[in-house]
Amino acid sequence: xxxxxxxxxxxxxxxxxxxxxxxxxxxxxxxxxxxxxxxxxxxxxxxxxxxxxxxxxxxxxxxxxxxxxxxxxxxxxxxxxxxxxxxxxxxxxxxxxxxxxxxxxxxxxxxxxxxxxxxxxxxxxxxxxxxxxxxxxxxxxxxxxxxxxxxxxxxxxxxxxxxx
Amino acid sequence: xxxxxxxxxxxxxxxxxxxxxxxxxxxxxxxxxxxxxxxxxxxxxxxxxxxxxxxxxxxxxxxxxxxxxxxxxxxxxxxxxxxxxxxxxxxxxxxxxxxxxxxxxxxxxxxxxxxxxxxxxxxxxxxxxxxxxxxxxxxxxxxxxxxxxxxxxxxxxxxxxxxxxxxxxxxxxxxxxxxxxxxxxxxxxxxxxxxxxxxxxxxxxxxxxxxxxxxxxxxxxxxxxxxxxxxxxxxxxxxxxxxxxxxxxxxxxxxxxxxxxxxxxxxxxxxxxxxxxxxxxxxxxxxxxxxxxxxxxxxxxxxxxxxxxxxxxxxxxxxxxxxxxxxxxxxxxxxxxxxxxxxxxxxxxxxxxxxxxxxxxxxxxxxxxxxxxxxxxxxxxxxxxxxxxxxxxxxxxxxxxxxxxxxxxxxxxxxxx
Lengths: 164, 417
Known about the structure:
The structure holds 2 protein chains of 2 kinds.
Chain A: E1 2-8, H1 15-18, H2 30-34, H3 45-48, E2 54-56, H4 69-76, E3 81-84, H5 89-97, E4 102-104, E5 115-119, E6 124-127, E7 133-135, H6 141-148, H7 152-159
Parallel strand pairs in A: 1-2, 2-3, 3-4
Antiparallel strand pairs in A: 1-5, 5-6, 6-7
Chain B: H1 5-14, E1 23-27, E2 30-34, H2 38-47, E3 59-62, H3 72-88, E4 91-93, H4 100-108, E5 114-118, E6 131-134, H5 137-146, E7 148-152, E8 156-162, H6 171-182, E9 191-195, H7 197-201, H8 204-212, E10 221-223, H9 228-236, E11 256-261, E12 268-270, E13 278-280, E14 291-295, H10 296-299, H11 302-312, E15 322-326, H12 330-338, H13 341-347, E16 351-352, E17 373-376, E18 392-395, H14 398-407
Parallel strand pairs in B: 2-3, 2-5, 3-4, 5-6, 8-9, 8-11, 9-10, 14-15, 14-17, 15-16, 17-18
Antiparallel strand pairs in B: 1-7, 12-13
Helix pairs in contact in B: 2-5, 6-8, 11-13, 11-14
């Protein structure tokens, strides 16, 4: 069970909002890069986020670049999961590969700063602030196995190959 | 029951009966990363415990996004990638060679291949009839080591394109029109498969433009059949032996069929800050533009430079509008010199960049100032994309870009040709 605060964003949050290409020179310095997380969507995000918070997006979250640094800086910021109405496919796969859960649910019912309880096993999001209970879509089994191992690299370290 | 292009290619490369929705592990014919995703790929490759590449001659690194490097940190990343190539024996393409997707199209990808790259526009090779898709550094690192990856076989949307383009309207207008209509989320997790009489006559350059932007509708792949035009292209690249015909089955099952008559299209532009936010170029007359950028993996090929040069020949850029041109590869640049296009562009006061990604992603070579607007032939206009969240980006065809450079405001190219 994950418990934390919702930090709400709108539709079409791109990988350039999350971590723009102009900061590519900082990719070799992840702590420095992570200070800019979500900067072009919310310049105060890095100071606002606390460990355990959830990023709550609208539709098509994470569209754009294949840069894995986008979910990586979100993970480094301490965010425990991303909730969105829909997620761009490369971002979805990248986040799971880093062990960062991405949950597809109707986020319209969640407001900024709401307190949420996420049950990854039951597949439910409980909005404690407004009493709404949401269910999120099933994650493909192969991705659940990768998530269970903490990401693709630990999965490969353990299994040495894809075990489907 | 028949198969889509996606199902056919993934069936062949996985050795299984791949159907939409199933999960398969497929051999990759080419796996690559570029200079902004490559360093993390190397880190993840090493963290996975791999010592050697599964197939060094099917693994490639491209130094194209920061080319030449604008600062010492990125120069250090380039050193790391060159060393990795030296140690592992993978292919490496250095600064000035060109954009990864153009080089993959010119010399590496084959019809029927599965290609993955740590760059979202890897979909470009779909123009050759390859199942090509972008992934992140971890997935690519594992494919470096294993020579394969897993896929969820996508449902396909069939896009049937018919009719003849009217003057001033191009493949770029078609794909912007399509994305505007289905939305930036309209093909998420799906393959877009193109067919129809217009496709049967369409040049490879235009097919690459369309396949390149499939990801801007969320698609996993943008696929074209591999036909005689593909064959002629491969022969012209000195690799006719790489050709094999690839077509979908006539009785394949599609999730949706979209019909487009290109004769009805007009020059189309994406407005800030999403690609699906389209308008007709003519409707945006009066929108002042400070920079025009012609190039990228979307529209930096010889055909694109020809269109722009023919419009700009004997004319000059508007005094308030900078004009920047980046050929997609060395081969394109040399051919454009040979054909006189570069001469025409320079005489029109264009700045010619080295082959590479140029100003597209905001690293260097044309970063926008506060409050400025750019008309670009690239594929993305997200906030901050060209290096400044206080700037605005419009997307259009090379013809619209050239016309806009002349007038200083967004212009339907038919007004100047």
